[in-house]
Amino acid sequence: MYRDWRWRDGDFAFTPRGDAALAEGMEVVRQDLLARLVSPRGSHWAFPAEGSRVPEFVAAPADELTLTELQQEAELTCLEDARVREAASEWAEDPAAYDGARALRLRLTLAEGVLELLLRRP
Questions:
Q1: Which pairs with CB-CB distance under 8 Å and at least 24 residues apart come from 43-47?
Q2: Which SUPFAM superfamilies does the UniProt entry name for this protein (predicted)?
Q3: What are the residue ranges spanned by the domains of the chain?
């Protein structure tokens, strides 16, 4: 079982008593993978191989070639994590978007089960 500090909006999450909250199981894997996906590769001094090229695509045009490259980068980045056995993705309608924007839905197979992540374009 995995256990780590729980993160919320880039900072530690706290319990109602003021203690640091813990994440367990698939929640740890989810927050680890999201942190890896949104951090530029080499941006953390202690883990220079961590991160991805996903942030480079934020300001790029949303043409089919760019979206395909982004999709491939997200899948490959997730597969770098030893807990991920398979990665598949598709562009899907973003349920939170008001303008019909699409989001990248990642479906990741782990030994513990299947994890789905939704990456929204800013």
A1: none
A2: gpW/gp25-like
A3: 3-120
Question: Considering the entire predicted model, what is its pTM?
Answer: 0.84
CATH code given to domain 3-120: 3.10.450.40
Q: Under 8 Å CB-to-CB from 103, ≥6 apart: which residues?
A: 91, 92, 93, 94, 97, 118, 119, 120, 121
Contacts of 53 (CB under 8 A, 6+ apart): 40, 41, 73, 77
Q: Which residues of 93-110 are buried (b: 16+ CB within 10 A; e: fewer)?
A: ebeeeeeeeebbbbebeb
Q: Which residue has the tokens 């695509």?
A: 57
Cα distance between the two ends of the chain: 33
Computed over every residue of the chain, the mean pLDDT equals 90
Q: Please tell me the predicted confidence (pLDDT) of residue 93.
A: 85
pLDDT number for residue 66: 92
For residue range 6-45, what is the model confidence (pLDDT) as tens digits? Answer: 988 778 899 999 999 999 989 999 999 999 999 999 898 8
